[in-house]
């Protein structure tokens, strides 16, 4: 199966993906076989149902949002390039990359891109701010049923209070980054 | 003049049950002597004075001899159970020491009593009883509860470690002790090499699973877990095989002139015995899986089939002088996957609990017997032998751990750290296995048997108590994280979010392991094995029945309250827009942090928690249920509002995997229906958004509300005579076709779904079955669940 997968993935495509994402050859091949095994429709793209078929994602509190993060805006299908691009955010930063190419485009798995990714999980309406409501929704997803809404509300308030610096009762990306730096 | 022994005995019976063992032991002893003498008296009387019927037929008699063995065995087991109850009532104790400690103590207590009252203990432990009755349940239980997927992924490492480790330990300890025996000062000169080797083999049988509960709280990664598990599993088998081979050698009386051909024959025999046993186990596993396919009408015998076939595999292997232990293990591992899908829910639970119970009883008996023989006169104490045994056990275990893992780390994707290796080394706790083998040494071949038994006992006591109690703190010490740093609420939330995110992405990427082999096996399995071994109509799975119950409860509540649960989501939006942020006191913040910490969902753990002595429902199961329910609620709520999901995607895409049906009959091409299914208890149908369209005439039945728990067979509800096949048919081309608004959402009754899915879900390919099954642990039935949880969307095969 491995060899079959790599023949389907053309070498130049592999090279492009490698350059764009920084994964190694074997990693890309392996992820391609994963992609094809998820792709039940065998049409070279994944839809949301394919992701939902992964059982562990079903019981991940953020499962839906993670799935959604794979799909570009307004689309229902993601092809292998898009798949790899999203996964590339999570590739661990290797030491030999740190000193490379300061002038080129920022690698996909840079810290700032990772944070952007996480920020997008919170920020659903994509206004670059995490409002209290959005925070509340995330909190609700991550917390058990034992916490009442009022408690959750005050936790959300407190969270915003801690992070908010420009007083707009919402967390912007810069504030988010600062929060993560502690 | 009749015997009135019964009356005084009665209160003593109660005292016994209240765990005053002394009274019981003494009284039973007394009663026995009283009784036998009384009976003799009665007989004499009866013979002498048969002409006086009124006085010679006694109203109450006592016949202790008749029940002695089962009676005492039962008492022992009850006593151990009472002790376990006490042990678990204390919250902290189970985390401090392994349960083996407790059992040994109870055994020692019983032994003390029996010794004190000079009572002859029942012959619980002799060779045939041990090997035929006591050992199989223990091995069966560990084989059955072993998580198969991680086991097979790490099979190479496990075989390498368990197999070679056992051999290395056995021969190492044996040889070193032989060298010690050569020293004349210790007086051990008469123990020859073979006997030492034999002793080495039986003392190297570890029982590390017993300590798993102790360091469960510390983060033990899955690989380590599997190593320990795998070792425990194969260890018994290997040491028994080795033991038997060496006994055979000893019997041949060829100690001094063992030729190389003998050694080669021994090795070959070792391999044949091991593999042959496993082979037979697999065969029997398949046979029993096949048979359970047909037992749907007589589900009461399903546990019987499981147990009898496993036991049969053991016996057959033993007949052929193959390793029964490995046979029964292989049988359990093979059988488990298919049997779990075939048997009914109650049978499944019965099997699990019964297995735990049997193995628990066996182990209890062995430990008690160990305690009994501790306190007795059958000891021979030799300082040198015993001390060196202890020392060598530790040294050789350390050597084997570090050397073998060093080698295997070169080949593994996830090497084991030194910390992991230390944990493995330290968890080398001996258990009942070693003691049994020592006890069963034939005295004729081993004149110094008592020495061996004493040494074994010392090693067991030492490792169980000292190592067992300190392994927990050690692991926690080694696993020190930066725990004491106070995090703000933000950080905590954010860290947890990132953990969930990472776990989710890992899951998307799948397992980084021998993917191809596993994939191939799964394909083969699905194509051939499952068709043969798994029955067509699956019984209800626990997740489904749970959903039914929860659904109904929710629905009833909603009807009663008249308010949808979804309003909770909308309130924050309206209410607190302009509320100013209050200044919170530190205590409030603290309490908030505590609440958050305690209540946030755990990140998905790959490590399964296993308890040797108990079956506990997993907390992650509860968490999973909550998450699933919430997701459905969110979806339902958003659909109800007539708009798409929060993130702007059409509602139809977010599908309910766990209750959608496979699609076995293609709908007429003209109607591209993508029917999403839900089990949905809405307050009233009138709120259903008009997006629902359904070409099937049975739509009308949806309007009926049924709150009864009866399951209505789908067939009857649809006049067409075909079973309802609402399926979520995913077809990439059509998806674009329908566009956003076109997603059809059908909300039939949940009750229907629960039934039908079992019929149909089998048809579809469920490649992820084992993964999901293992994930949700043994508590949730993997079989039905998997079928349920994956949207069996595709028509394709």
From TrEMBL, chain A:
GO cellular component assignments: cytoplasm; nucleus; plasma membrane
Metal-binding listed as a keyword: yes
GO terms for biological process, alphabetical: protein transport
Molecular function terms from GO: calcium ion binding
Superkingdom of the source species: Eukaryota
Claim: Transport is one of the keywords in the record: yes
Family according to the record: Belongs to the calcineurin regulatory subunit family. CHP subfamily.
Protein name: Calcineurin like EF-hand protein 1
Organism expressing this protein natively: Bos taurus (Bovine)
UniProtKB/TrEMBL annotation, chain B:
Keyword list, A-Z: Antiport, Cell membrane, Ion transport, Membrane, Signal, Sodium, Sodium transport, Transmembrane, Transmembrane helix, Transport
Domain Cation/H+ exchanger transmembrane: 77-476
GO MF annotation terms: potassium:proton antiporter activity; sodium:proton antiporter activity
Compartments (UniProt record): Apical cell membrane
Membrane topology: Multi-pass membrane protein
Protein name: Sodium/hydrogen exchanger
Domain Sodium/hydrogen exchanger regulatory region, residue spans: 567-672
Lineage of source species: Eukaryota, Metazoa, Chordata, Craniata, Vertebrata
GO cellular component: apical plasma membrane; plasma membrane
Disordered, as annotated region: 680-701, 757-797
Gene this protein is translated from: SLC9A4
NCBIfam families reported for this sequence: b_cpa1
Biased composition (Polar residues): 692-701, 788-797
InterPro entries in the cross-refs: Cation/H_exchanger_CPA1, Cation/H_exchanger_TM, NaH_exchanger, NHE-2/4, NHE_CaM-bd
Compositional bias annotation for Acidic residues: 757-766
Family named by the database record: Belongs to the monovalent cation:proton antiporter 1 (CPA1) transporter (TC 2.A.36) family.
Signal peptide (residue range): 1-26
Transmembrane annotation, as ranges: 96-117, 129-146, 158-181, 193-215, 227-249, 270-291, 311-333, 353-375, 381-407, 423-445, 451-475
GO process terms (BP): gastric acid secretion; glandular epithelial cell development; potassium ion transmembrane transport; regulation of intracellular pH; sodium ion import across plasma membrane; transepithelial ammonium transport
Organism: Bos taurus
């Amino acid at each position: 199966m491995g060899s079959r997968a790599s023949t389907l993935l053309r070498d130049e495509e592999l090279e492009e993906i490698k350059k764009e994402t920084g994964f190694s050859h074997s990693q890309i091949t392996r992820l391609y076989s994963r992609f094809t095994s998820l792709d039940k429709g065998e049409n070279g793209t994944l839809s949301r149902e394919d992701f939902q078929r992964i059982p562990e994602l079903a019981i991940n509190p953020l499962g839906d949002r993670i799935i959604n993060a794979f799909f570009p805006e307004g689309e229902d299908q993601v092809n292998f390039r898009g798949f790899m691009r999203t996964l590339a955010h999570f590739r661990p930063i290797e030491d030999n990359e740190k000193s490379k190419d300061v002038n080129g485009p920022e690698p996909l798995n840079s810290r700032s891109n990772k944070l952007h990714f996480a920020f997008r999980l919170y920020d659903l309406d994509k206004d670059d701010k995490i409002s209290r409501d959005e925070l509340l929704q995330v909190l609700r997803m991550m917390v058990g049923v034992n916490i009442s809404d009022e408690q959750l509300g005050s936790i959300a308030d407190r969270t915003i209070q801690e992070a908010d610096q420009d007083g707009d009762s919402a967390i912007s990306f810069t504030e988010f980054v600062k929060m993560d730096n502690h | 003049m009749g015997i009135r022994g019964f009356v005084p005995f009665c209160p003593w019976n109660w005292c016994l049950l209240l765990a005053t063992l002394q009274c019981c032991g003494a009284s039973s002893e007394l009663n026995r002597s009283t009784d036998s003498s009384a009976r003799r008296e009665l007989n004499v009387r009866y013979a002498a004075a048969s002409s006086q019927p009124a006085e010679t037929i006694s109203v109450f008699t006592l016949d202790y001899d008749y029940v002695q063995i089962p009676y005492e065995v039962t008492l022992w087991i009850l006593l151990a159970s009472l002790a376990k109850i006490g042990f678990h009532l204390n919250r902290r104790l189970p985390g401090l020491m392994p349960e083996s400690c407790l059992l040994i103590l109870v055994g020692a207590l019983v032994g003390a009593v029996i010794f004190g009252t000079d009572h002859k203990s029942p012959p619980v432990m002799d060779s045939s009883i041990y090997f035929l009755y006591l050992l199989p349940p223990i091995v069966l239980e560990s084989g059955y509860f072993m998580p198969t997927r991680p086991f097979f992924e790490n099979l190479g490492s496990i075989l390498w470690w368990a197999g070679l480790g056992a051999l290395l330990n056995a021969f190492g300890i044996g040889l070193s002790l032989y060298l010690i025996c050569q020293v004349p000062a210790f007086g051990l000169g008469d123990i020859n090499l073979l006997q030492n080797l034999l002793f080495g083999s039986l003392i190297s049988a570890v029982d590390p699973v017993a300590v798993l509960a102790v360091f469960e709280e510390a983060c033990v990664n899955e690989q380590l877990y599997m190593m320990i598990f795998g070792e425990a599993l194969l260890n018994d088998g290997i040491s028994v095989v080795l033991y038997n081979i060496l006994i055979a050698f000893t019997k041949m009386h060829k100690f001094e002139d063992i030729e190389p051909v003998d050694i080669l024959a021994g090795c070959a025999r070792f391999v044949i015995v091991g593999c042959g046993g496993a082979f037979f186990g697999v065969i029997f596993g398949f046979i029993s899986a096949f048979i359970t396919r047909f037992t749907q009408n007589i589900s009461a015998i399903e546990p019987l089939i499981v147990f009898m076939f496993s036991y049969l595999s053991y016996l057959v292997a033993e007949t052929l002088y193959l390793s029964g232990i490995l046979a029964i293990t292989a049988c359990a591992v093979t059988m488990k996957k298919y049997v779990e899908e075939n048997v009914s829910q109650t049978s499944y639970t019965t099997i699990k609990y019964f297995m735990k119970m049997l193995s628990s009883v066996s182990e209890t008996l062995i430990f008690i017997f160990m305690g009994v023989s501790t306190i007795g006169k059958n000891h021979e104490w030799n300082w040198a032998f015993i001390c060196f045994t202890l020392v060598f056990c530790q040294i050789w275990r350390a050597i084997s751990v570090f050397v073998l893992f060093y080698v295997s780390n070169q080949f593994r994707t996830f090497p084991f750290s030194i910390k992991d290796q230390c944990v493995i080394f330290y968890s080398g706790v001996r258990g009942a296995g070693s003691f049994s083998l020592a006890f069963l040494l034939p005295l004729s071949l081993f004149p110094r048997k008592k020495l061996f038994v004493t040494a074994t006992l010392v090693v067991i006591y030492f490792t169980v108590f000292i190592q067992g109690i300190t392994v927990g703190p050690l692991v926690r010490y080694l696993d020190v994280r930066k725990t004491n740093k106070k995090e703000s609420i933000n950080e905590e939330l954010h860290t947890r979010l990132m953990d969930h995110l990472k776990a989710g992405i890992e899951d998307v990427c799948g397992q980084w392991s021998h993917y191809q082999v596993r994939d191939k096996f799964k394909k083969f399995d699905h194509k051939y094995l499952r068709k043969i071994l798994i029955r067509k109509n699956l019984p209800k799975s626990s997740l489904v029945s749970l959903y039914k119950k929860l659904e109904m409860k929710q629905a009833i509540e909603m009807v009663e309250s008249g308010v949808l649960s979804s309003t909770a989501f909308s309130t924050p939006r309206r209410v607190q827009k302009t509320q100013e942020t209050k200044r919170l006191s530190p205590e409030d913040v603290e309490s908030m942090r505590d609440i958050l910490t305690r209540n946030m969902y755990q990140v998905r753990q790959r490590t399964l928690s296993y308890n040797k002595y108990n079956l506990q429902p997993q907390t992650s199961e509860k968490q999973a249920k909550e998450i699933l329910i919430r997701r459905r609620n969110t979806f339902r709520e958003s659909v109800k509002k007539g708009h798409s999901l929060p993130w702007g995607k059409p509602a139809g895409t977010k599908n309910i995997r766990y209750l959608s049906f496979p699609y076995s009959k293609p709908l007429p091409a003209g109607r591209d229906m993508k029917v999403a299914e839900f089990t949905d208890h809405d307050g009233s149908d009138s709120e259903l958004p008009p997006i629902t369209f359904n070409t099937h005439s049975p739509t009308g039945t949806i309007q009926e509300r049924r709150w009864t728990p009866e399951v209505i067979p789908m067939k009857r509800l649809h006049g067409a005579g075909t079973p309802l096949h609402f399926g979520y048919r995913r077809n990439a081309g059509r998806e674009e076709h329908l566009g956003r608004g076109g997603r059809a959402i059908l909300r039939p009754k949940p009750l229907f779904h629960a039934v039908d899915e079992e019929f149909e879900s089998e048809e579809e390919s469920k490649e992820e079955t084992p993964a999901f099954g293992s994930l949700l642990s043994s508590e949730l039935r993997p079989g039905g669940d998997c079928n349920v949880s994956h949207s069996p969307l595709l028509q394709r095969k």
